[in-house]
Specification:
The structure is a single chain. The chain folds into three domains: about 270 residues, Orthogonal Bundle (GROEL, domain 1), CATH 1.10.560; about 100 residues, TCP-1-like chaperonin intermediate domain (GROEL, domain 2), CATH 3.30.260; about 150 residues, GroEL. It has 18 helices and 21 strands. Strands 9, 10, 11, 12, 13, 14 and 15 form a seven-stranded mixed beta sheet that branches. A three-stranded antiparallel beta sheet has the order 4-17-20, sandwiched between helices. A three-stranded mixed beta sheet has the order 7-16-8. β18 and β19 form a beta hairpin. α5 packs parallel to α17 and α15 packs across α16. Bound molecules: adenosine-5'-diphosphate and magnesium ion (MG). Adenosine-5'-diphosphate (ADP) binds next to α5 and α15. Adenosine-5'-diphosphate binds next to α5 and α15.
């Protein structure tokens, strides 16, 4: 592709050059940002490809997730890093749309470059982009449609759309159903009629060795741990559970204190003291009536033995996030100091074991909280599934609380672009060209969706534009047939909030890059990479590891 070979920032970066100004600075930055956009484009949409990321340590991640790709790539170019921040903001604010945001930012800058070449001042471009971004978001809101949070079928489509192309794809109907039920289970209707999704009551746990289709939604928590001692019970019917954030170990004496032992008697005395201390700790726990302990820290062997004798189930080194979740599920307190523990700190519920004997299921008496147990054959599969499901959870949660959705598959972008071009007529001067360039940039999404599906992107865009001109607001791309379809009816449905955020963050990032006309670097801007490759290496997989060097 021509743009991959265009940017050659190294030409202007002599070995001793540490300052780049004006057009050169812009060109340098734009190339870097475009390159990042290029790097993620091929993953967009249901026909997007995955990337395999290999760290210098040899750890492998296989993913289709924009933000994961960018954060795990070893990027050491400041401009490219700014674009990565776009992806991170998008991920935090919307949970989806990261590839769209980053690729759109790259496209905006590519089009801005053309305008600057036509002697349009970057400030005019920035002004036009800002006008366009604000207007585009108003149009997104106008086009969006309302959702009934009880409409499980629609929510299921939203979940499936966000999972498309991800590892979750194969079992997406099962998984999307779990996600929708999970979100509905933690949604409460507020007094003002709004719907509040309390994600603190929803946990994700993963388990390898079984197929993704066997994933489940459980009431309560699932804790991937074993009892510390074989003599302990594995299930506790009427559990009084202590959550402990202190080790059940002998308190360490001051490092400076020397214990000098002169005789076997003294040694015995010393050991007895330690035993007494542990015995006391276990007695304090038993005195509260606790019959199960999830300890965030360690448990001494002898203490384990005493606990087992008392018939108490104990688990050590429980993850702090799990302890936090158990606190919700059981309505218990987390105790920092065994000496002060009382019965009131305990939570009540039931503890059982899964069939494999790997997980504890912990249910609170009042059925608080739920766990999505994601299963998959291997770690790589489960990791990518978890990313896809996490996105789906965020997206469905946003849909329920925000209540606005739209037709995907490029429909929204083509419609907004059409409306932006109308709006451009009302904008005077050179800013008008920037607004038009913004509209063109949004259409990157349908073009790339088509490209990634092996379709002709120009034909696709022509067809889509014609349908929208004819008033079909939901006309998007059917990636299987290449035809135009009502993507909303086809179940390709996205949230308005993620789309607004993607447009806003792409515009902000582009403007940020355009505003820079002077790069003063304390270090050497020209990294040791070979100059004639330019940003091109990043478009393909081969160049990813050496990304910093390629720029
Ligand atoms: P992002 O990180 O931007 O969410 P994705 O790889 O998830 O990137 O792709 C999202 C794009 O794919 C959206 O434009 C969405 O409408 C589109 N899309 C998702 N599923 C389909 C589908 N079945 N048919 C057509 N387009 C789809
Ligand atoms: Mg997505």
């Amino acid at each position: 592709m021509s743009q991959r070979t265009q940017g050659q920032p190294m030409v202007i970066m002599g070995d001793d050059s540490q300052r780049v100004k004006d057009k050169d600075a812009q060109e340098y930055n734009i190339s870097a940002a475009k390159a990042v956009g290029e790097a993620v484009k091929s993953t967009l949409g249901p026909k997007g490809m995955d990337k395999m990321l290999v760290t210098s340590m040899g750890d492998v991640t296989i993913t289709n997730d924009g933000v994961t790709i960018l954060t795990e790539m070893d990027i050491d170019n400041p401009t490219a890093e700014m674009i990565v921040e776009v992806a991170e903001t998008q991920e935090d604010e919307a949970g989806d749309g990261t590839t769209t945001a980053v690729a759109t930012a790259g496209e905006l800058l590519k089009n801005a470059e053309d305008l600057i070449e036509q002697e349009i001042h970057p400030m005019a471009v920035i002004k036009g982009f800002t006008l366009a971004s604000d207007h585009a978001r108003e149009e997104v809101d106008d086009i969006s449609e309302g959702v009934d949070p009880e409409d499980s079928e629609l929510l299921q489509s939203v979940a499936e759309t966000s999972m498309t192309g991800k590892g979750a794809e194969l079992d997406k109907d099962v998984l999307a159903d779990l996600v929708v039920r999970a979100i509905q289970g933690v949604t409460v209707d507020a007094d003002d009629g709004s719907h509040v999704v309390d994600l603190a009551n929803l946990n994700i746990e993963t388990q390898t060795g079984r197929s993704a289709g066997e994933s489940e939604l459980l009431s309560g928590a699932a804790i991937d741990k074993d009892p510390v001692n074989d003599e302990m019970p594995e299930t506790v019917e009427d559990a009084d559970v202590l959550l402990l954030n202190e080790a059940i170990e002998v308190e360490e004496t001051d490092v400076d204190t020397q214990v000098s032992i002169d005789s076997p008697d003294q040694l015995q005395q010393f050991l007895d003291q330690e035993e007494d201390q542990l015995r006391e700790k276990v007695d304090s726990i038993a005195a509260t009536g606790a019959n199960a302990v999830f300890c965030q820290k360690g448990i001494d062997d002898l203490a384990q033995h005493y606990l087992a004798k008392e018939g108490i189930l104990a688990v050590r080194r429980t993850k702090s996030s799990d302890v936090g979740f158990l606190q919700n599920v059981l309505e218990a307190s987390v105790v920092d100091d065994i000496d002060s523990v009382t019965e009131a700190d305990l939570g009540t519920g039931t503890i059982s074991r899964d069939d494999e004997g790997e997980l504890f299921y912990v249910e609170g008496e009042d059925a608080h909280g739920a766990t999505l147990l994601i299963r998959g054959s291997t770690d790589h599969v489960v990791d990518e599934l978890e990313r896809g499901i996490q996105d789906a959870i965020d997206v469905v949660a946003t849909t329920v609380s925000d209540g606005r959705v739209l037709a995907g598959g490029g429909a929204i972008e083509v419609e907004v672009a059409r409306r932006l071009r109308d709006f451009a007529d009302s904008v005077s001067g050179r800013e008008q060209l920037a607004v038009e360039a913004f509209a063109d940039s949004l259409e990157l999404v349908p073009r790339v969706l088509a490209e990634n599906a092996g379709l002709d992107s120009i034909d696709t865009l022509v067809d889509l534009r014609a349908a929208h001109e004819a008033g079909d607001t939901r006309a998007g791309l059917d990636v299987e047939s290449g035809d135009v379809q009502d993507t909303f009816d086809a179940g390709v449905i996205e949230t308005a909030q993620a789309k607004e955020q993607a447009i806003a963050s792409a515009a902000e990032a582009a403007n940020l890059v355009l505003k820079i006309d002077d790069i003063i670097s304390a270090g050497d801007l020209s990294t040791e990479g070979d100059g004639d490759d330019g940003a091109g290496g990043m478009g393909g997989m081969g160049g990813m590891g050496g990304m910093g060097g390629a720029m």
